[in-house]
Amino acid sequence: PVLRLLEAQLQDQRRDHEEQLETLRNQLDAMQEELHNQQQASLQTLQLSPEVQVELGLQQEITRLTNENLDLKESVEKLEKNEKKLKKQLKIYMKKVQDFEASQAMLPADRRPHDSNMQVAVQRKEKDFQGMLEYCKEDEPLLIRNLIT
């Protein structure tokens, strides 16, 4: 039984090896064909006049720059959209702070929270996180004000 098990494992390994070898051969054939095509294109380019070579080079560079420009425009659009979203959030938070400050002004002086020495420390991380923040309910207005400023 042990001998049969070892033979079966050996046959499985042999089949895996043969499959991997076949995959590598196919990749090698594809790379050789691609190399041959690139060599043919290079030879054809070298046989062209210098003016045509320059024109082809310029066309390739224009294509590359056009693609890069489109990528940059897409990035700018995303950033502008994010900026609008953040400005909208800022307006909302500013309104909340103003409302809170107005409500605090209505309270008697002895009931107002003493927040002159309170500061919120935020640790910066290398990665972008979206997570939870734990705080006391009475510290919420101070936290919002500190986040905005």
Protein model, in words:
Keywords: Coiled coil. It comes from Onychorhynchus coronatus (Royal flycatcher). This is MYO5B protein. The chain has about 150 residues and is mainly α. The chain has a domain at about 1-45. It is built from 3 helices and no strands. It has helices spanning about 1-45, 50-105, 140-149. Helix 2 runs antiparallel to helix 3 (about 140-149). The chain is flat. The chain starts with a helix and ends with a helix. The mean pLDDT is about 85.
Based on CA inertia axes, which overall geometry fits? flat
Mean pLDDT: 84
Total of DSSP H or I helical runs spanning 4+ residues: 3
The end-to-end distance, rounded to whole angstroms, is 76 Å
Structural class: mainly alpha
- Beta-strand content: under 5%
Please estimate the helix content. Answer: over 70%
Radius of gyration: 34 Å
Give the ordered list of helices and strands: HHH
User: How is the main sheet built?
Assistant: none
Q: pLDDT under 50 segments (min length 5)?
A: none
How many DSSP E strands? 0
Briefly, what is this?
This protein has helices at residues 2-47, 50-106, 140-148. It is mainly alpha-helical. It has a domain at 1-47.
